[in-house]
């Protein structure tokens, strides 16, 4: 059994096996606190106009869609329309 830290997951690229599309790097995870399991990985959506106009909705990759965790990549098999989530807008000043 291989163990992996979340900081190691964040350094891996996520690639969809069906389309060959590079989705990006992991930025967050959804965790079920009762069971102690990771439910999904969150990958930021692509930037609009080079990032000047924000980003598209984030990809939500259910744990069941992950096919292989490699040394430097995560291979996933997403459905035709991958789940997306709108990015929360955070205030510039706290």
Q: What is the CATH domain class?
A: Mainly Beta
Distance between the termini: 42 Å
Point out poorly predicted stretches.
none
Q: Report the mean per-residue pLDDT as an integer.
A: 81
Q: Given the C-alpha coordinates, what overall shape results?
A: globular
Q: How big a fraction of the residues is strand?
A: 35-45%
Q: What is the CATH homology-level superfamily?
A: PRC-barrel domain
Share of helix, binned: under 10%
What's the alpha carbon Rg, rounded to whole Å?
Answer: 14 Å
Number of helices: 1
Give the biggest sheet: 4 strands, mixed
Helix/sheet category? mainly beta
Architecture per CATH nomenclature, i.e. the level-2 architecture? Roll
String of helices and strands? HEEEEEEEE
Cross-sheet strand order for the largest sheet: 2-1-7-6
The CATH topology name reads: SH3 type barrels
Total strand segments: 8
Query: How many structural domains does the protein architecture include?
Result: 1
Structural notes for this entry:
- 5% of the residues lie in helices and 37% in strands.
- The protein is mostly beta strands and 94 residues long.
- The chain has 1 helix and 8 strands, in the order H-E-E-E-E-E-E-E-E.
- The model has no long low-confidence stretch (mean pLDDT 81).
- The strands form 2 sheets. A 4-stranded mixed beta sheet has the order 2-1-7-6, with no helix packed on it.
- It has one domain (6-85): SH3 type barrels.
């Amino acid at each position: 059994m291989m163990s992996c830290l979340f900081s190691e997951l964040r350094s891996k690229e996520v690639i969809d096996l069906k389309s060959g599309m590079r989705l990006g790097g992991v930025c967050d995870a959804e965790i079920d606190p009762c069971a102690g399991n990771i439910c999904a990985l969150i990958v930021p959506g692509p930037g609009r106009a080079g990032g000047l106009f924000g980003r598209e909705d984030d990809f939500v990759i259910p744990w069941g869609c992950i096919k292989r965790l490699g040394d430097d990549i995560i291979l996933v098999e997403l459905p035709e329309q991958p789940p997306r989530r709108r990015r929360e807008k955070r205030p510039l000043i706290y």
